[in-house]
Specification:
The chain is of the alpha/beta class. The protein has one domain: Alpha/Beta hydrolase fold, catalytic domain (Rossmann fold, 3-Layer(aba) Sandwich), CATH 3.40.50. It has 12 helices and 8 strands. The protein has an 8-stranded mixed β-sheet, with helices on both faces. Helix 1 crosses helix 12 and helix 4 runs antiparallel to helix 8. The longest helix has 17 residues. The chain binds D-malate. D-malate binds next to loops.
Amino acid sequence: MSGVVNAGGLSMGCDDTGPTGHDSAVVFLHGFPHRRDFWAPQLAELGAEWRCVAPDLRGFGDTPAEPPFGMDRYADDVAALLDALGVARAAVVGLSMGGYVAFALWRRHRERVAALVLADTRAAADSDDARRKRRALMKLARTQGSAAVAESQLPGSLGKTTREADPEGVETLRHLLEAAPVEGIVGALEAMLARPDSTPTLATIDVPTLVVVGRDDAITKPAEARAMHERIAGSRLEIIEGAGHVSSFERPAEFNHALRGFLRGVPAVHPTG
Ligand code: MLT
């Protein structure tokens, strides 16, 4: 199914693919300023084995930009979507901003979380400098629109290998970023700059966890991924060679391989149990 679902009163754009009729799934939470299509390479492949759910977070894709915005709000939206779809428990895969949402989901709805995949993300809150940059980006979005935001985000998002050897991939990501609505961009920036420090959350995570990062991720660097991995008991760390900040998009085969290997060890979300 690809369409719009009433999630607690919010019309959420969502893909729900793979084996149906199971009350467990793998849920994919996109980054900033993406939308659910970002996960197409994962749904195409993993949908053969798992029920896969990919929502548009509030303000992106087919989900309207209805305030308020905040990580807790996004997490509550995802929990309401799981209710609407009849998903009791999920392995939650969050990339970058999607990882910030995954932390909030863990804090607020942990009974729904069977496993976590934290991809190209960080636990720390924004520094003062990062908040200043977020406010400048809000201004850019309001004055010059989504294309200007896409232009400013694109170079840092992709690793050197992708930038130099995959012009088609660069253009695909550019189009995805350019399609983000200004209100969604501004709302997400507000949510990110106000988000709490999730470092204390790491020690509370007691479900199987995979931390993934692109070797050339310049935004959430491998050192930060390693630090998260060291604080989450029993977690696994995978570094994706030749990828930057959007490792699932840049190196889908390698990312999917790591994800599949991890998910096969989480019987709670596998349709065959
Ligand atoms: C993302 O990819 O979601 C962003 O880089 C997250 C951020 O700006 O902190």
